[in-house]
UniProtKB/TrEMBL annotation:
Signal peptide as annotated in the record: none
A matching Pfam family: SnoaL_2
Keyword Cell membrane: no
Name of this chain's protein: Steroid delta-isomerase
Coiled coil: none
Length: 113
């Protein structure tokens, strides 16, 4: 996969996230997407249906949800986004999202806070 395609996927899902457009958001993800919280060593999702429901609920419950990209590092097979998330709780969240790719889609996401 090209670095341009990886950037396109990372940015496309971020734009859809900020629009809280669940249908568009999930188009950037692999059907077997896996999501992990690194600090807790916890898998929170392992398929697109669970992923979609998880984010649909988050979008519905947080109408002011917004993610600001602070920096992006593009490696050979991963994209690391440093993000500042507001509107999802009483205080902003400083997060790093690491995206992995399979079949020209985002297949893995690892979150670190």
């Amino acid at each position: 996969m090209t670095k341009e395609r990886m950037i396109e996927l990372a940015q496309g899902q971020l734009d859809a996230y900020n629009q809280r457009d669940i249908e568009k958001f999930v188009t950037f993800y692999h059907p077997k997407v896996q999501v992990f919280r690194l600090a807790q060593n916890e898998k929170t999702c392992d398929n697109i249906e669970t992923f979609k429901e998880m984010y649909k609920k988050r979008f519905e419950e947080n109408p002011a949800l917004h993610c600001e990209l602070r920096s992006r590092v593009v490696l050979n097979d991963s994209v690391l986004d440093e993000e500042w998330v507001t509107g999802g709780g009483p205080t902003p969240s400083h997060v790093v999202a690491i995206y992995g790719f399979t079949d020209n889609l985002i297949s893995h996401v690892w979150f670190a806070r």
